[in-house]
Design brief:
single chain; 267 residues; mainly alpha
Length: 267
């Protein structure tokens, strides 16, 4: 990394304004996950809403003053994206292999935050977006390209792998290194939310990855229906409704953890 890039990244992360906006980003990310979790639980009763970022943003847009909140979501997530990408240049890791692995991980998080921010911006400007349709469109394009089946399988395995990583981080409480966890009962609650939230999100992402692989194997892009399709697919499992409610509660827990991270994150 060049010295100028590191200097720019350091200047960005030392900005008080960016820190406030990045913490806002964690807070609004938490809000979206709480809404997604609530929609997921509603699916058990036959709700037709999309249990993903698009569904959460649509829910916000339907409320009085919702557009203002969506603008805050977009601004907060773009700020969080900028802060996250800055970490790519400022990582301290003596092992070169681990350093590049962590850089890829930090960059991936930044891209994910930016993608959700872009979706929020679309809603803020009066448009609409469907995460499910986006996943199916991506799958269709990959399947139509040379070697597309292999590429789609790789995409699915990567997403499933990220899901497994979330579960591991939750079980081993690796998320603690990103926060200054308060003492006492509050700290125990934050840890509990982190464990349940990371495991639930990991399960959801794992199913999303599996659906990408199924889409590749069956050459049917409609199988790759994103988070909404993954959560709805849980209903078809044995005790599926119970599992879906548990995952929905877990996603709400993850949302509350993100809100706690907005307060106690190491930035």
């Amino acid at each position: 990394m060049t010295n100028s890039a590191k200097s720019a990244a350091r200047t960005a992360t030392n900005s008080r304004a960016l820190e406030i906006l990045a913490r806002t980003g964690f807070a609004v990310l938490g809000l979206l996950h709480i809404l997604i979790g609530a929609i997921a639980i509603g699916l058990v009763g036959g709700s037709g809403e999309s249990a993903d970022q698009s569904g959460a943003l649509s829910e916000l847009a339907s409320k009085p003053g919702g557009i203002v909140v969506i603008w805050l979501v977009a601004i907060g997530l773009f700020a969080l994206t900028l802060w996250q990408i800055a970490q790519v240049f400022l990582l301290h890791e003596p092992d070169p292999k681990k350093k590049w692995g962590r850089r890829v991980s930090e960059l991936g998080k930044g891209i994910a935050y930016g993608a959700v921010g872009a979706t929020a911006l679309t809603f803020a400007l009066g448009g609409s977006s469907s995460s499910s349709n986006s996943s199916q469109s991506l799958s269709a394009k990959l399947l139509a390209s040379p070697g597309g089946v292999v590429l789609l399988v790789i995409v699915g395995l990567v997403v499933a792998g990220i899901g497994v990583a979330f579960v591991v981080q939750g079980v081993l409480k690796k998320f603690e290194k990103h926060l200054v966890i308060p003492a006492g009962t509050t700290g125990k609650v934050v840890r509990g939310l982190g464990i349940g939230g990371y495991v639930a999100k990991g399960i959801a992402l794992f199913v999303v990855g599996v659906l990408f692989v199924v889409a590749a194997v069956t050459a049917d892009p409609e199988k790759a229906s994103g988070l909404d399709g993954a959560l709805k697919a849980l209903i078809d499992l044995p005790f599926g409704k119970v599992i879906l409610v548990a995952v929905g509660i877990g996603l709400i827990a993850y949302g509350l953890f993100c809100a706690a991270r907005a307060r106690w994150a190491k930035l």
